[in-house]
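Researcher: Go.
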Amino acid sequence: MAVLTAQRLDLRPLPGGLGAEVLHQQVAEIDDRLFPAVYQAFLDHQLLLFRDQDLPPERQAAFARRFGEVQIHVMNQYHLSGHPELYYLSNLGPDSRPSGKHPDRGTLVWHTDGSWRERTGQVTILYAERIPSFGGETWFADMYAAYDALPPAERRRLEGLRARHNLDFSRSRRHGEDPMTEAQRLATPPVEHPVVRTHPETGRKVIFLGDHAECIVGLPYDEGRALVEEINARAVADARRFCQKWRPRDLILWDNRCLLHKAEPYDALHEARVIRRCTVLGERPR
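Model: Structure:
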């Protein structure tokens, strides 16, 4: 029987200490020997950047499947034709020119992918096809650091709380003119998750909220809503952060269990931004 020999990656820490760039490596060439090193780097650094990738849609989906079950997003109007695993974020109209319409304004607010599911997002993988000359960056915030910055009494208070996460709530706030269909709402009822979760692989505690979190279970709605906003703002302020300034053919992947992210605005009327996204399902937060 052949024995697989583990391989190593050439890594360079990203500015600010959050994340690492993987040098001299095509994602499509990652095999069974190299993937364990990729996964360990993913856990260690929370975010990995690969530059100058030749990655058609089918190879992006195949790479995602190495991590686990790939989410088929309930918002099926975003599915890439022939590849329902891929969530296609494009401001191009039928004439292939910028339409002026931002495809998903929910991406402009700090969030974690799939927190509105029982099994939330584990890893998200973004691939840049077209990038505007200005704007459209993606920010990441470290929720390990946000939790670690809390005073002990505040940690104890938050560890006893649960939040209600609701995709219909966040979608209606950010894209009220293009609401979810009744079928989409029925497929994604609100779920409850702890405000402080324990990462299932590292054992570290993180603040787990973001824009899909609507309110705090057991508190009056307005009080719980205000507390969610307060915790979100404090968490991002206390976190280590990294800004991804995109180039075409960049690929970035990150751990949704310990990071929040958001995109920056851009001129959607005059410039193109086309990003392919896929999210791998993880565990139910605990």
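Model: The helical segments are 35-45, 57-65, 143-148, 152-159, 167-174, 182-187, 221-238.
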